Amino acid sequence: MEYKLFINGEWVESSAGESFDDINPATLEKIGKIHKASDEDVKSAVDSAEDAFDSWSGTPAPQRAKILFRAARMLEERKEELSHLLTVEMGKVLKEARGDVQEAIDMTYYAAGEGRRLFGETTPSELPEKFCMTLRRPIGVVGLITPWNFPIAIPAWKIMPALIAGNALVLKPASDTPIMSIELVKILEKAGLPKGVLNLVMGEGSKVGGAIVHNKKIRAVSFTGSLETGKWIMSEAGKDMKKVSLELGGKNPVIVMDDANLDLAIDGVIWGAFGTTGQRCTAASRVIVHEKILPAFQKRLVERTKKLRLGNGLDEAVDVGPVINSSQLQKIAKYVETGKNEGAKLALGGKTVKPLPGYFFEPTIFTGVAPDMRIAREEIFGPVVSLLGAGNLDEAIHIANSVEYGLSSSIYTENIKNAFKAIEKIEAGITYINASTIGAEIHLPFGGVKSTGNGTREGGTTAIDEFTEIKTVYVDYSGKLQKAQIDIE
Q1: Number of domains the chain contains
Q2: Same domain, 334 and 368
Q3: Domain shared by 229 and 257, yes or no
């Protein structure tokens, strides 16, 4: 099928006449021809959003919410269809694709509910006959740039709070998975979203994403992706004082203490490390195990991982699907070679899967990993997990905190003191107790510390913070000039 750009409420061809192919990573079959936006197309999309902003921001938020509620119901009705399409386009196994779509449903309902909240604050004035409050205002035209690993959930995480807050949007999805964003835009269009409020442009990040970042009419940019790109966006957007929200990845630790329920911990590590083929910013890529139980844990983990089945995610019996593309496959293979060269021991996997036609890589476990090795510090974004030993909780936390990222973290323990010490001391935006590093819920803040981002949070009420500005209002009904601070005796 051929997929066009969506600008000012119309599906239009690329003005440059350029396109690219969307590829199924499990079969390498072409599933779509995608129109590639030119600089002129991006400009038209931004101009359309600017034109639509006044009317949309002036629409009462509960009325905006009605459109989102309709969209949420449409997503529910099409959940199974969209899940199959997502597996075809991105590769994750069908049960995970259903979870991806469900996140989009949940966020759409949640953001719609915020249409009757959008809370500000009231507070007493220090002067008589004076009223003080804050209220939220939309930012204006907002650029959204999303990754390929959650091709409908993450666009929804950004689109829905931004819309309910009254912003007009330009969305650029990842080139590997644009069809899910296209389907989401179609649903919002059918739900009654006015023309120009949401515009969709496809193409490579360096060109199309760059045009969004550099357009002076865009007042904010929300980006999920790599650290290097995030740094570039912050630097470039700062030249125009744009508001920037960044979610940039992680190197997430699971700590397994000697009193842990090992069966539960192994379940969590396998899910965290190999769910979505390790292609999550919250993936459990480091497992820090108490030295007393490390040999037994390692043996059982390897035995369980050997049983994982690779293949096309449409097969309900498959546990692990493909990685997204050839370059990612090569990147993972290079990290495996790096790990071996650094002295880590390859306990399982480490190879591409030749008989299958797609981009498949074996679930891989490294043992004997030191904290300063690259495989223990850098985000691989594939089905590769490193096992590290620690003599006690303090050492485990020190290892957990020794990387530049700080997104998600986990500890398995039956000791409440261990759990609360981990909560207090681990440098991460998220900490799970007796659960893996993945599984964020949409009504809670999502994001991290250090190089994981720039302090913003998605999800929950903080999603509204991301897409609004705060205005402070003073109403003096005294009928006389009152000078704050000066008139206080």
Answers
A1: 2
A2: yes
A3: no
Q: For the segment 431-481, what is each residue's pLDDT rounded down to a tens digit? A: 999 999 999 999 999 999 999 999 999 999 899 999 999 999 999 999 999
Q: What is the per-residue pLDDT for 489?
A: 66
Q: Which amino acid is at 182?
A: I
User: Torsion angle, CA of 309/311/312/317, rounded to 10 degrees?
Assistant: -20
Q: Domain span at residue 288?
A: 252-433
Catalytic residue among 96, 114, 183, 247: 247
Question: Residue 317: which CATH number?
Answer: 3.40.309.10
Q: One of 281, 362, 458, 466 is an active-site residue; which one?
A: 281
Is 132 one of the annotated active-site residues of the chain? no
Position 55 in a domain: yes
pLDDT in tens, 236-260: 999 999 999 999 999 999 999 999 9
**Structure token digits, residue 248:** 């940039």
CATH code: domain of residue 119 = 3.40.605.10
Q: Are residues 306 and 399 in the same domain?
A: yes
Rounded to two decimals, the pTM is 0.97
